[in-house]
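Hey, I was hoping to borrow your eyes for a little while. For a while now I've been wondering how a particular protein folds. The fold is given in discrete form, as structure tokens running alongside the sequence. Could you read through the record and tell me how the tokens relate to the sequence? Take your time with it, there's no hurry, and the full record follows here:
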Amino acid sequence: MNTTNYDIVILGGGCAGMQLMHQLIHHTNYRGESILILDADKTYLQPKSWCFWHKSEDHPYQSIFNTTWNNLSIGFPEGIKEKSINPYRYSFIKSESFFDFHFKEIHQNNHIRYSNDKVLKFEKCGNDFFIETNQEMIKTQALYSSFWSQEEVTNDRSIFLKQQFYGWEIYTEQPVFNSKAATLMDFSITQTNGVNFAYVLPYSEHQALIEITGFCEKEYSIDFFEAVLKQYIQKNWNCSYKIIKTERASIPMTNFAFKRFTKEGAIAIGTAAGMIKPTTGYAFNRITRDSILLANQFFNKEAPIEFTHTRFKFYDRLLLQLLKYSPAKALHILMQLFRKVPFQQILRFLDEDSSLLQEAVLFAKLPKKEFLKQVFKHGNNI
């Protein structure tokens, strides 16, 4: 079997693999290094979307934002609370826009190869990685991998929940949606074994993506999701509609200690590197920041360092424990958070960009007793 050499190989062509490729080829020190992306799963075919909040209009993906909102809404049993999030904005990218953008970059750069060949195994020998696919043997000194094992994570002593969501993009003949605000969480829907909420992205007065989300160990059925969706649409808009597209996904919510390197020595990216925020599922901007860091380290010939434990991991663990062991109390705390704390402060905290003083002010407005219970009950695991 012939061996082909590449300067950089990326295993996985999803959000993390494509963002890393983008940052590498746009780095000021890029000189045409050869890049191979191996994506047997054809990730671009999976219907999904990414949302995130940001301050600057100079976001790396500003040119492909499909929609942006200046206001966010939170739904409570007593009604909807809508607020401006200035200086933040909440933006949305469809997977079609994301992958079209990156495949255009690939097609315009003859130093990049994208392949759907299947990776059979890979190992490190000295300074080189050897990747065996169903078609060839590949050699590189820079290997980045988005591969991770759910079995390994679930078998660990860590907490493992799922953020499951199912939604419809619908079109209505009547102008029924408030297109000025995205609904981040509407807690007024049916609650079951976990914490459930509706998520609404109105693209216009006639069109919106409406999803039902659950934080839970139990696997929700499509029948459950569709029943709650129909009830939610009927309750809020009471109109006929046409389903344009369906989305379904499950995101890990875990305090598992993801590593910077895989067991084979490759540099982990995306979910494999713990880039999904455990308590929210938001990953896009975290992956963007990590991709910039990794590109800088590659061209500066710096070795990435292992992740360190931060106080934000401690906060995430407390909320995950509440979601697992006391979901009703977790729901109460989440609603209190959005009732009592300005949205901008919450977004800053979730971005892990807040100071200790700001966090103390935020926690002072929440039921501290429930958090303390989690520390004393499960303190040895924190």
The chain is about 30% helix and 30% strand.
